Amino acid sequence: MPENYALILAGGSGTRFWPLSRNATPKQLLNLFDDQTLIEQTVNRLEGLVPVENIIVLTNVEQEPAVRKALPQLPAANIVAEPAKRDTAPAIALGIGIIAARDPEAVMMVLPADHLVQDATSFRSLLGAAAEVAALEEALVTVGIKPTWPCPSYGYIERGDGASIAGRKSDDPVFEVNCFREKPDTAQAEEFLRQGNFTWNAGMFIWSIPTVTKELGAHCPELAAFIQRLRDGGSLETALHKEFPELPKISIDYALMEKASRVLNLEATFDWDDIGSWLSVAGYLDTDASDNHTNCAVSQIDSSGNIVYSRQPSHIALLGVKDLIIVQTGDAILVADKNCADSIKKLVDLVPPGLH
């Protein structure tokens, strides 16, 4: 079987988590739940599945120092800072080119750096099964998350018939993908759940280098040519600073996944949370009898449904307040209505630059 590689995308800004999240230390570099950051957890989950020397992390110039500090076990050359934001397709193309130059027959996993998965054993088992499928079939493989509610904020994958794949050792069900669905409205999402053959698109992709380069050649030749130059020994510095900023700004879903000749889907057997906002974090904090979610000492009267998070040794008192998000750091305090959680990123534009 081909050797496994992993590309971890770690360039997001995470502005919904302000004031804890900043430009240089976004969500993936926060230890929201224990002493490990989300990116550390992502790398550690791959132990036994992907050799550490085969893990590539893409970040940006501003976050690069913190990423290197968080991941000292990775070879220095495996942490690459993108000089410009070009969306996921160019970022993934860059990773494909780096891996193809090392091993043109490799199987490659693309993983976000900022998702929470607590069952690492099931994660490794399912990703291993997906890698096996990618090695045996000329297809792009996706990992889907079984929907638990009609979420309008996720893209969906519509599955078709089961796929029979000869030579497999794993028995995780594999399905043909009929199509990708963009973020639906709530009514559409409810219909997807009723039909039962939809999964959330978690942005986890697995493919062999020969298959993905062939598909990109057919559907996005500019990215394919960029990859070929890296594969043929082109300078990474030249690719980063002269070629990468000129690549089309497009997502991998639009550039490739929605056009590929064959896509397969495995449903996740592990827990998953993309931790999209402070509302998601609340589910992992201590909860009192009034449904206040906290990580610090709180006293309250007639206060319920609040999320209180402090990075300071504070005691926070609540009086007659409901459904607030209260976040305290050393230099800023956020007080927001829970119903406005998705708008925190807009608020960040209004605070002084030093607090970004």
Structural overview:
The protein is α/β, with parallel strands linked by helices and 356 residues long. The chain folds into 2 domains: 4-267, Alpha-Beta Complex (Spore Coat Polysaccharide Biosynthesis Protein SpsA, Chain A); 278-355, no CATH class. Helices cover 29% and strands 24% of the residues. The protein contains 11 helices and 16 strands. The protein has helices at residues 38-44, 64-70, 88-102, 120-136, 186-195, 209-219, 221-231, 236-243, 252-257, 278-282, 344-348; strands at 4-9, 55-60, 79-82, 107-112, 140-145, 156-162, 175-181, 198-208, 263-267, 286-287, 293-294, 297-301, 307-310, 315-319, 324-328, 333-337. Helix 3 runs parallel beside helix 7 and helix 6 (209-219) crosses helix 7 (221-231). The longest helix has 17 residues, at 120-136. The model has no long low-confidence stretch (mean pLDDT 95).
* Class derived from helix and strand content: alpha/beta
CATH topological fold name of the largest domain: Spore Coat Polysaccharide Biosynthesis Protein SpsA, Chain A
**What is the radius of gyration?**
21 Å
How many helical stretches? 11
CATH homologous superfamily annotation of the largest domain: Spore Coat Polysaccharide Biosynthesis Protein SpsA, Chain A
Average of per-residue pLDDT values? 95
Taken together, the total number of domains comes to: 2
CATH architecture of the largest domain: Alpha-Beta Complex
Poorly predicted spans:
none
- The ordered string of helix (H) and strand (E) elements is EHEHEHEHEEEHEHHHHEHEEEEEEEH
How many E strands? 16
